[in-house]
Amino acid sequence: MALIVVSNREPYAPRSRDDGGLDWVPSIGGLTAALDPALQHTGGTWIAWGEAHPDVREVQLPQDNPRYRLQRLRLSEAEVRDFYHGFSNRALWPMSHYFIERTRYDVVAWQTYVTVNRRFAEAAVAAYRNGDTIWVHDYQLALVPRMIREMLPDAPIGFFWHIPWPSTEVFRTLPWDRELLDGMLGADLIGMHTTDYVRYFQAACRRALDADTDEGVVHWQGRTSRVVARPIGIEVDVFEDLASRPDVEDEADRIRRTLQTLILLGVDRLDYTKGIPERLEAFDAYLDRHPDARGRITLIQIAVPSREQVDSYRQLRARVEGLVGRINGKHTHSGWSPIQYIYRGVSREELVAHYRAADVMLVTPLRDGLNLVAKEFTACSRDGALILSRFAGAADEMKEAVQVNPYSPGGLAEALQMALNMPLEEKKARLQRLRSRLHASDLRTWAEDFVKEIADQ
Ligand code: ADP
Ligand code: G6P
Which GO terms of the cellular component aspect does the record hold (predicted)? Predict the structure, then answer.
C-alpha cells in the first residue's frame, strides 16, 4: 500500500547549477513545509505542477536522501495564468480569506480550473494501484476528489483544505459554489484546521446543495463524507534540534549583538492576508506613543516574495516597501533604524536563529488558515513572547499567546506593550504550556493519523 499525494505546489523546485546540474530547493509555504516530512516518512508518490524546468517529469526526493517520487505535470502559460494566478489566487484565495473586494470571478479562469483539475485527477488515477491511498490538497484542486471518484469508485480518497473556510454568506458569492462543494464531496474524508471551518463547510453544503448533514458528516448523492477538524502540526523535534545547534545559537547571538536592541520579529509570505502593513503601522504608532522606545527596539520583518503575477501582491509589495521607507525615515537616528526588512526566503538555520534571537514574535494575519510560523517560533524560542491574531486558525489551540484583533487600531500596540513588559517567569510558563501541546500534535502523528482515517472510511 502506498500513499499518493496530489497538490499544486511541488515540495522542491529545481534550480540550475553552474555545472549544468539541478539543485532541488525546498518550496516555501505551509502546505509543502508540512507534507514533505510526512511523505519522506511514509514513502510514495507526490504529483504536482512542475513550474521551473518542466521537461523534468520525474525525480526522487529529497535529492541527497531519496524517500519518494515526485511526478511533475506541465501546465501551459495560459493554464498557469487562468488556473493558478486566475481562479486559484484571484477567486478562491481572496474569497476564502474574506477579501471579497479582491476577487475576480472569471468564466474562462473557472473553465481552465476544471480542465487543470482533470489533468491532476488523471495523473493520480494513472499512478494508483489497488490498496493505495490518495490524498489531495488545498483550494487549487478542490474538484479532483470527485473526478478521481468517477474513475475509481472504490479508491480511498482524502482531501485537506489548508486555508480558512469562510462563513456561508461569503462562500455564496462564488458563482460555482455547488460545483466546488460537489468536487470536494468526492472524498471519503475532508480535513480542515478548525471546528469553525468544519461547521461553515457543513452549513454551505446544506445551503448551496441542500445536502443532509449530521455530526461530522455530509450525505450527498448516496454517499457520505466525513468532515473533521485536524489542525496541522510541525516537526517539533527537528525544530528543537535546530534550535539547540551551536552554529544556530551563534547566529542568534550575532543578530542580537549587531542590533543591540530588543527584537520584534515577523516572518511571512508577502501576502495581503498576513497583515504586514497593519503590523508596520502599529509599530510606528507604538514608537510615536513611546519615545523612550526609540533606539531600544528593532522590528525584523522577513518576507518571502509570493504570487508576483497577481496585482494585489505587487501592490502589497509596493505598499510595504513604502511604509518601511516612511517609518525608517521618520524615526531613524544615530545609527538606529526601527525596521530591518529582508525581502527573500531564508534558510531553515537562519529562520531558527531569528526565532531564537526574537523577544517578541508578531503573527498578526487578518485571516489565516492555521499559521505554522506561530508553532515554529513556539518550538524554537529562548524565552520570547508570541503575539497571535485571533483570526489565525492556530489561535484555537494557542490560548497562552497574547491574542490580538489586528483590525483594532490600538490593539496591536497594546499587545506589544504587554508582551514587552511580560515578566520572564510568565513568558516561560506560557511557552511551556504551548510547547507541551505542540508535542501532543506533532506533524508526523497528524499525517499518519489522517492517512489511517482515510483508509478506515
Ligand atoms: P502560509 O501557508 O500562508 O505560507 P504558514 O505560516 O502556515 O503560512 O507557513 C509558512 C511556511 O513558510 C512556514 O514553514 C515558514 O517557516 C515558511 N516561511 C515563511 N516566510 C519565510 C521566509 N521569508 N523564509 C523562509 N521560510 C519562510
Ligand atoms: C498556502 C497555501 C498552499 C500554497 C502556499 C504557498 O500555504 O495553502 O496551497 O502552496 O500558500 O503559495 P504558492 O502559491 O506559492 O503555492
Answer: cytosol
